[in-house]
Write a structure and sequence with these properties.
Layout (H helix, E strand, L loop, with lengths): L9 H8 L6 E4 L6 H8 L6 E5 L3 H11 L5 E5 L6 H7 L5 E7 L4 H5 L25 H7 L2 H12 L4 H14 L5 H11 L11 H14 L5 H12 E11 L2 H14 L20 E3 L9 H6 L7 E7 L1
Parallel strand pairs: 1-2, 1-4, 2-3, 4-5
Antiparallel strand pairs: 5-7, 6-7
Helix pairs in contact: 7-8, 7-10, 8-9, 11-12
The structure holds S-adenosylmethionine.
Length: 312
Amino acid sequence: MEFKHISVLLNECIEALNIKPNGWYMDGTLGGGGHSNQIAQRLDKNGGLVMFDLDKEAISFAKERLKDNKCSMIYAHTNFKNFKEVLVQNNIAGLDGILLDLGVSSYQIDNAERGFSYMQDGELNMAMDADADLNAEKVVNTYSQEDLTQIFSTYGEEKFSKSIAKAICEARKVKPITRTKQLVDIIVNAVPAKFRFSAGHPAKRVFQAIRIEVNGELEKLRECIFSMVRDGLKQGGRLAIITFHSLEDRIVKDAFNLLASDCICDKNLPVCVCHHKEEVKLINKKPILPSEEECEQNSRAHSAKLRVLEKL
Ligand SMILES: C[S@@+](CC[C@H](N)C(=O)[O-])C[C@H]1O[C@@H](n2cnc3c(N)ncnc32)[C@H](O)[C@@H]1O
């Protein structure tokens, strides 16, 4: 299958990273290499780019796409949350910029057999990393009803979490749930008819929730942002993060605001006791959003938000 993915907020990200030709950059979410290729093209032979993806297919596609660039290029088939080990192994002392374009690529969604899409039938998988132990089939067939309810409600903000979780647990007693289509039918039937399509497809939020659980997408994201600023970036280095849903964006926004605050004491205290010092400046107070034109050309761009900070 051809690797198709249109990079979101491409020019905005490149501008945000303020690329120095001899600098070292990190792309934590390589995907089709669209952003990485633009970064690499702006680097000379003294500059370098370290790229991460959990998906081996993404890495092999991007390697081919980026092969003609002059800068040093390092590929890491691991979670970007392990960035410190990769920097140490490669003697990279600090980074001038880091980009995270969170979530899944269009290639992953469009490939029915990866199981990310509620629109096509495929194996119930959803793991970005094909070697991972956890996948959607395990979540759906082995998690307790209480855990499923919690996941659908926390990661999917799904109103009918309880009835959907109950319907899944009843259905799996009859036969294991192994296909996306099977799961979609169970979800649709568990939502009362009058609400079924009132807020988009009812499977959309549940699939998002399962995907987040399978890939641990929100786990330690906040800690990772702090660590990228403190242990990854050089002074003046930039961190740019694109999010696609409110749960992710809230984590990024709160972490950025905390890092940019001089005092985090309760407002009622007469004097500061926290001694918290700002570590970054926010490049934009409000997130950067895609233009109407970009949204028309790429439906995936609609929910994108880009936040950028600079280490002081
Ligand atoms: C939205 S796509 C990136 C697209 C890319 N920026 C481009 O322009 O082609 C996200 C990619 O990041 C990978 N990914 C998501 N979370 C990751 C994580 N925590 N660690 C490593 N890779 C991750 C996914 O497998 C996917 O290939």
